[in-house]
Amino acid sequence: MQTAPTLTLYTYTTAANLGEARWNDRDRADQFFEDVESAKRDLLEVRDEIAEDDETGPTAICLERIETIPMTELNAAGKMDKEIASVLNAEGFLAAQNCAFKGDNVWLLRRRWGIPTVKINGTSPNPFRWPDGTYSVQGAAAALGITPQTIFKYLGRGLIQGRQLVKGQPWQIELTEDQIDILRARAQRNRRSRKQAS
């Protein structure tokens, strides 16, 4: 049985004094991911950094393991990469080089570990109709006899109503039979007028 990959988060503390902030970076720690195929467990391992404190001389920077979070829990919350990054930052976690998490960091981890983003139907292609009866962009385009790009124009103009869980998620477009008939007729009129103009 394969276990879900986990995200291990680290924070920097000095061995001399946890409250001491008067040290200078010497070298940035090398960061690397463990072999994804063999472990898929730790987010990163960071080698010890050497810092020099003005008063006490060289002081090793220790890595303190804060928390291990199953990556599937991050997906289960239905959050996108930027939202996950902001949650990690709000909780005080730091990314590899003692900087804040960004959506790109989370995206890289997903890609590296082969973890899909949160999506209504997982990794499979969008169906023409969602289980709740709404249409995907491709399904609405097929139902109306227009291109998917025109569906996006209709959404922007408010001719049709749709929703996304968050930006970047597939559209769920609500269409009634009356709307389908009206918008099909509109598309046919537009096609005829273009033919007559040319």
Task: Characterise the protein shown here.
- The protein is α+β, with helices and mostly antiparallel strands and 198 residues long.
- The longest helix has 21 residues, at 177-197.
- The model is unreliable at 9-68 (pLDDT under 50).
- A hairpin with a 3-residue loop joins strand 5 and strand 6 (57-70).
- It folds into two domains: 6-113, no CATH class; 137-197, no CATH class.
- The chain has helices at residues 71-76, 81-90, 103-113, 137-144, 148-157, 177-197; strands spanning 6-14, 23-25, 31-32, 45-46, 49-53, 57-70, 161-163, 172-174.
- The chain contains six helices and eight strands.
Gyration radius, in Å: 25 Å
**Average pLDDT reading:** 68
% residues in beta strands: 15-25%
> How many strands?
8
Please give a handful of descriptors for the protein shown.
198 residues, two-stranded antiparallel sheet, 33% helix, four-stranded antiparallel β-sheet, 2 domains, elongated, single chain, alpha+beta
Helices and strands in order:
Blueprint (H helix, E strand, L loop, with lengths): L5 E9 L8 E3 L5 E2 L12 E2 L2 E5 L3 E14 H6 L4 H10 L12 H11 L23 H8 L3 H10 L3 E3 L8 E3 L2 H21 L1
Antiparallel strand pairs: 1-6, 2-5, 3-4, 5-6, 7-8
